[in-house]
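Holo prediction. Input below; ligand is zinc ion.
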Amino acid sequence: MTVKPAQVMVVTPHPDDAEFGAAGTVACLVKDDKDVVYVICTNGNKGTSDRQTKPEDLARTRQQEQRAAAETLGVKEVIFLGYPDQELEYTPELRKQLVRLIRTYRPETVITVDPYTRYFWWHHDHRVCGQAVMDAIFPYARDHLAYPDLLEEGLGPHKVNEILLFNTEEPDYRVNITDTFDTKLAALRCHRSQTGAFGQELEKRMRQWAQENAREEEYELAEAFHRIDMWW
Ligand SMILES: [Zn+2]
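Structure of the complex:
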């Protein structure tokens, strides 16, 4: 395994989470010449109300949709871990996979879901993903004595500078996405199996949400995060 540095890593439970929660921010980072890598933990194979759709077909569709959305945003690489939807479990294997990726891409910033929401978007896979990512960053990716086999492979310790948690109940950091809102919308529309049914409502809802996030700002549209500035 060789080291392939990218400044930003986005880790999500499902295909489409990154677009709903952080695509405007991702587009801003890409504009700023940052390399962004996506890691999608599950294959999204249960995300339908259509009883005719087979899970394996849905997984394939959602992978294509996620690739298209990432391309729209200028994301450099998309990695699919392929766990079944709704069955992401916090295992030593998952944590090690995440540590391996963090040590390979060595991001300054990691964007993921807030695992600690109580009354908003408390999806099982979101809790597991957010917790496993935070644990992978600290202490496991940092400490050379964690996973000596990775060290032997050339994947030494890495310190992430900041974590941005989206879908949060405690937002304390906002990104101005006024100029990238249209790109966010275009990326969301790539997830046709998830957003197709919204039609024009999608833009309206996304705009309202972004306006709400920006209500105390000088600009119109924002994405909101809980930001953790790592202290090392
Ligand atoms: Zn999700």
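The pocket of zinc ion is lined by residues 13-14, 17, 123, 126 (CB under 6 Å). That is the main takeaway for now.
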